[in-house]
Every structure is written in C-alpha cells, then in structure tokens.
Amino acid sequence: MTGDAMPEEPVLRVSSLVKRFANVTAVDDVSFDLMPGASLGIVGESGSGKTTAARILAGLDEPTSGTITLDGEIVDGRSRRARRRQARRLQMIFQDPYGSFDPRQTISQSIAEPLKLHAPGSAKEHRARVEELLDQVGLSGRAGRALPRDLSGGQRQRAAIARALGIQPRVLVLDEAVAALDVSIQAQILVLLDELRRDTGISYVFVSHDLAVVRHITETAIVMRYGRIVERGETEQILRNPAHPYTQLLLDSIPSPGWDLDRVARDRRALDRS
Q1: What is the structure's pLDDT at 44?
Q2: What is the pTM of this model?
C-alpha cells in the first residue's frame, strides 16, 4: 500500500455529442465531464441547444453521434432494457412537472411509481419510502394525498424532486427547474437542492438561462451558443471574467442600474455578424 488515492472517475462523461434535426444541427460537438457530487451548469439562451443536450442525457432523444458514459458504462438507449438502466441512474426534472404527473394519481402514488419499477420491496416498504421522500423535500402527508392540480407550482416541483430521488439515481438533470416559480419559491427550491446534494452525494446537470441561478447552484459551467460550447470553466470565474463575447452579452443583458439596452442590442448585432 502506497497510500496514494485512486483518481476519481467522472460519474458522467459526454464526448463529441451531436444532434441534427433535418438540416439543423441543434447540438454540435459537445463534450464535458461531471464528477461525483458535483454540479455543472449548462447556460445559454433559447435555441442554444442546452435543452436538446439535456433530453439526450435523459434518453428522451437519440444523439446523431457521440457517446455518453454513465458510471463507466457507455449508454445505448436503443433497447428497453438499456433505457431502463439509464433511467435507474439518471433522472430528469422539467420546468413544469405538471405534465409528467398522472392527474388521476395522488402525489404519493406518483412518487411510488418509479419505486415499483426500479426498487425491490413490498408495498409497505414503498409506502414508508414515499413518506421518507415527502419529508425529505419538505412536503406533508396531506400534500402526498393531494392530486397534482391541488398543489402549488413550488409544491409540485418538490414532489418531482422526491419522485426522481426515490430510486437514488447518480445524476439529476434539471431543465429550467425553477424558471416558472416566483423568486421567493425559487430560492427555497435552490436551498433544498443544495441540501439534498450535500446529504446524498448526487450530481447535478443544471440547465438554465438564468445566470444568477447558475451562480448559486453550480461550481462549473459550460456556455452554449448555436449548439456549440463557447466557454467552460469554474462558474464564478466565467461570470466574473467572461472570456467569450457571448458570455459577456448574457451578463450585459441582465437589467441593472444604468442598464443600456441600446448598447446590448448593438453588441448582439456585432456578435451575430462575427
């Protein structure tokens, strides 16, 4: 024994990912690593390719080319068994989870569904796990007995997080997960996500156009424009000292005292021409 620790391997490795729709390349040569327990931001405006990349990670879209390696295993989503294995290790949270809940099922029943598919155990054990998950995300038993339509947006997002965490995935992909919430509720969900990551060791891929949110919840980030990565690095460094004009434009587009909308528009036109 030399006492030297083995280098930690990424829990998620994305290599040369490409996605084309007819003549449009939505994702173009995207690569990144996500370490265990880490949080990576994918930043960009609408049309940047960030959501398409997230959907590919979650197995909702097939890549045109490139590889995704999850826990050291190359992901191949072409078979039902492979998709099930992928879902067991990687879950996704959407901007508005209402559409992913069965409106006829209670919240507790919806949280229990992945447990039935992926986690062995009796109905009693599953009920106990659901109660544990509800408590973990700050929801009451009463909320668990409610239908999705009876909960607020923030409560539904907490329920979606509980459902995703139930089968103990290694990675959680969050696509604009707080964008539809009021600012005060956003803060509550971000604090919850931060606590859950510390408690469970799960890794996050946090997709957002909101730089303030990305700054709060991630340590590293990639900035996407027209499907390509234009900048990458530590989140705070990128936002304090952006190296690419597009990142600077994103920062300049945030309203603040002395904000010059005309200058932002001029900079955007100049960037589009370059």
Answers
A1: 93
A2: 0.88
